[in-house]
Fold these 2 entries.
Entry 1:
Amino acid sequence: MAAGVLVYTEYADGTFKKSALEAVSEGRRLADSLGTELTAVVFGPGTADEAAQLGTFGADHVLVAEDDALADFTGDVFTDTLFKIVKKHQPQIILAAATVSTKELMARLAARLNTGLAMECSQLHLGDDGLVATRALYGGKVIADVAVRGLPAIAVLRPNVSAIVETPREASLEMVAAADRMRTRVTGKRMEKGDQVELTEADFVCSGGRGMGGDDFSLIEALAATLGGAVGASRNAVDEGWRPVSDQVGQTGKVVAPKIYFACGISGAIQHLAGIRSSDVIVAINKDPDAPIFKVADYGIVGDLFEVVPAITEEIKKS
Amino acid sequence: MDIIVLVKQVPETESLLELDTDRGLVNTDNVKWIVNPYDEYAIEEALQIKENNSDAKVTVLSVGPKRSETALRTALAMGADEALLIDDPAAEGGDALATARLLVAALKEMPYDLIIAGMRAVDNDGYQVPAAVAEYLDIPLITTVTKVTLTEGKIVTEQTVEGGILEITGNLPLIITTQKGINLPRYASLPNIMKAKKKPLVKKTLADLDVNTGQVGNAAAMTVTVSVGYPPEREPGIIIEGESPAEKAAKLVQFLREKAKVR
């Protein structure tokens, strides 16, 4: 009989991502509603000590696989190991926070289990027939509630939509053996951003658009650095080659949900708005008073971003 | 070398979408249909590989109703060699797993060395079909690929992940999914559009494939849309006035600290 909530808690670059802890907290909330237990699953060499701390965020049990084969994500060994765990523990619900790796992992797992999967959800609740997930369709133009069938029902959560809540308890720790099939291998790595905040997890995002006029985003970077936030870009800026694709915010880029989103020199095309809709506060700075962005911004400044943005940075530094 | 590209026809992102809130459905009667933008990267990548491999053949494969033929003709016009459409009313309302089953039923009947799919379909954004195809065919999967290098049965890819790029290597046969930035899809020239009309576009139904109706369509779906709605509109806020950028900036930061309760 399937019971319990299982959270795949991604460990990468020496830490748990903020979104992974959000997923654990959300798992705790669902487990409480179901009157059942929460198990966190962690993969990676040397992760056992930190994994044990997940009791802070509500995990009753933690399962850890520490094999070197799990140092970097490859589909086979991660899917095979998680599949073994799921077959043994028979959870009712599986959660994970959305990243490139977890989306691949959960999609393969759902197919192997022939079960329902709701990808990039903004909300979860328990209906009469089980898990119901809220997610966006058609690039954010439609919001749908989706009943997730099958056992386990799987949901992958957007970053920044659940709160990290501490509900501390002593979590039991069990070591699990990893599977060993690896048909693909990581043969190289170029990690570029260092300790910069990931766009989709950032509390503050400062984005530049066509109004930047070129690839010098130093003003935007300075504002982001002052806030401890991330730098984003509109599709125009990316298509011009000024910023990498990974910085693109919008319908065909990343969906962000920061406390404050600064749109600098961004006109506010519908496909961009789709990516920033979940921001708490939108600030727009644009020379053009008729730019559509002003219709959705909470605060707008009509002016030259090359003067306004540094002025904002200075003002924030003052406190 | 046989390259298969999985293609989906989707509504153009600027299309007006009407909602049938009673039935929890999106009305797509009046939309403009296009090739899923991420599948255009997949088609282009296949064509670039073909240009470097004289014996390579590119087949495009889709599950969808008759209108999907247009998407396949576009792929043929770009330079694909053959197209196959799986079209059966029994498949309507099927979920990602059902779509994958249909694709796999067709794939099992053709030679393939490399299968290329778009990373995501911009209508449903499920990211599930390529992964399910990998599972059902029991071949490896590499997602979110921004660069491909092929050497003697081996594929070396660059995968864009949070914070950087991973180089992932595997052996064919294998399925990859394409991310924006991998290439710039070509436009089909008018002569190529004319040539495409003569290229083979085969249509198959469930009866032609080793799939039973119990595995596809609405009844088998593991995710079911319960309700649909539009996202809440954001109300316009205020334009901050001031004599100078510094003054406006000061007012903004004051608002952010007081009203928005942020730093």
Note: Helices of chain A lie at 18-34, 48-52, 75-89, 100-113, 218-227, 235-239, 270-276, 305-317.
Entry 2:
Amino acid sequence: MTERQVTAAAGSLQPGRDAVLMSSAYHSAADMIAGPFEWFGNLGIFFWQVIKAAVTPPYEWRELVRQLDEVGSKSLPLVALAGAAIGVVISLEARYSLSRFGAKSLFPATLVYTVIQVMGPIITGLVVSGRVGAGMGAELASMKVTEQIDAIEASAINPYRLLAATRILACILMLPLLTLAADACGLLTGWFAQALVEPLSFHQFIEAGFKGATFNAFLPPTFKTTVYGLIIGLIACFQGMRTRGGAEGVGRAATNSVVLASLFLILADVVLVKFILVVFP
Amino acid sequence: MATIHDIAMKQEEHDQGGSVPAVAVRNVEKAFGPHQVLNGISLEVNRGETLAVLGRSGTGKSVLLRLIIGLDKPDSGSVCIYGQDIAGLTLDQIGAIRMKMGFLFQHAALYDSLTVAENVAFPLQHHRREMSRSERSDRVTQLLAEVGMDGSLDKMPSDISGGMQKRVGLARALALEPDILLLDEPTAGLDPISSGEINDLILQLQREHHMASIVVTHDLHSARTIASHIALLNEENVVIEGSYEDLQHSEIAFVKEFLKQS
């Protein structure tokens, strides 16, 4: 071929190559936009499968009890420690801030309301999301890539009932109890940190802190953690049970379980706080 | 929709000389994305028969087993167990059918948080709740003794070899006394002596339980030993189906090459 013929041939290829590039860019953009919708759609389908399985017998009571222990008992030390640490932090910050405005007498109520209404639930949720979410996501992902979930299904056992429903229900039931533990530890260490600086009996602290309080002030924030439990369990099970890709997939499932559960938990808190303020004024 | 009673009735009809095959795959197609794996496959297996499915790696043999047990759905065609098409069934409906099927996975797929005995007991705990603990324990010991693993009851799957895991997987597949047994590469990775023992075990199970069995394997010797007929897959379909002698006398180039290399 002459140089002119080669140039002409290359020129004639250019429109085709541009079309391929544009098509590739279009599909990438479409995937980016459609991806989240597809994810939420699959999550919805998964959730529906779990609900159907959870309400039809035979029920997996033994596995539920095992998961209650796994989620509740084994998270308790970490949650208690986190609650205790937060109690001290709030105590130190509150004392400093309140002193500046001459409102030291409000310290007990500030600590009690801050721990029980705000920090206790969210810290519990984030700690459990990290520990339980990662563990569940990794365990189920590992079972998925080694065909153990397929083996459960091939044995005529519903994996949504045995694996997902039990774990999600355990998270829903245990989060409020863990929150109470975190609150108790936070109040105890918060009082102790204050008592080291200014003598204040625990009885005086509790009396002042809960003065004028009603159940509406404390129960809804504690029980909103059932929604946290649903988010943590659902996302961890969803990420784990649809894993692909061997060891890399297992790692990705564990990471995504924690990241997505934590993110949705915080976003849900925004909605739940507003809901509580409206419904339980 | 099928209930376990319907399946039992069909089995009884079959046992009395009825015409319903235990497993019937009809014009099944399956693709994963752009990759066509199976393209119009049709097979039948009756009780008392063992079908060996042979073929090169990647020709869809394991996919075929997954379609039969219902872990995947065909893109078109039907998969019938005792005349019941399983494609449109829900998870719980197909569970009733799976109660009469046993599946040995290629890598055993043992539950790694349970001991060997707990793995074999797992289906019994869920489906034979009327059994007492001692009855279940006896049954587990009997099953593991059949596969030569009764000395490893308390071991974890990670503590035993791949071949031993397969034996335990086979014991678990037999726990519910299935009528249909699906085996994915039962002798892969085993030494010749162990392979022979597994083959003998499969033949013994056939004689005793009169099961319909489908064995996916690339081991021609194993297929010759245990199968009543053989199906050879290539390029998304069945190239030939018949006895080993039929394969030997075939003029199809692929069949000749496959036998030559085996």
Note: The CA atoms of residues 121 and 137 of chain B lie 8 Å apart.
